[in-house]
Amino acid sequence: MRKFLMIALNTVALMSVAALAFAAEGKMDAGALGLTCLAAAIGMAIAAAGCGLGQGMGLKAACEGTARNPEAGGKIMVTLILGLAFIESLAIYALVVNLILLVANPFVG
User: Fold this and answer.
1) What whole-number distance in Å separates Cα of residue 9 and Cα of residue 47?
2) Which of 46, 27, 35 has its CA nearest to residue 90?
């Protein structure tokens, strides 16, 4: 129940902030560009932290699995590398979105 409540509250918060962003008129000034840079930096920091935690947990589980069953090390390694690639792709997607915010922002004039 608590997880559902947190998801619902986060969704409401994000929707209210998005409404303010879409209500902006005309071109952005230097202050809004600064806020865009701040948002991109915070977004990338959250994405990097999440991916780092995910990769660390995956590596921990792979090491424990290999320690329990050394013969399955090859299969565990292949699965680990594939999982780490998927996790890292999330950070790359966040980087692409942040670069779009910073470089190809249509509101920055």
Assistant:
1) 20
2) 46
Separation CA 7–CA 59 (nearest Å): 28
Which residues, in sequence order, are CB contacts of 30 under 8 Å at separation 6+? none
What is the distance between the alpha carbons of residues 33 and 8, in angstroms, rounded to a whole number? 29
Q: 77 — alpha (psi -120 to 50), left (phi > 0) or beta?
A: alpha
Residue 52, SS3? helix
Outline where the chain has alpha helix (H). Answer: 2-22, 30-68, 73-103
- Tens digit of each residue's pLDDT, the chain (109 residues): 888 888 888 888 877 776 666 666 666 666 667 777 888 888 888 989 999 999 999 999 999 999 999 999 899 999 999 999 999 998 999 888 888 877 876 655 5
Is the model's pTM score more than 0.90? Answer: no
Q: Is the Cβ–Cβ distance between 87 and 57 less than 8 Å?
A: no
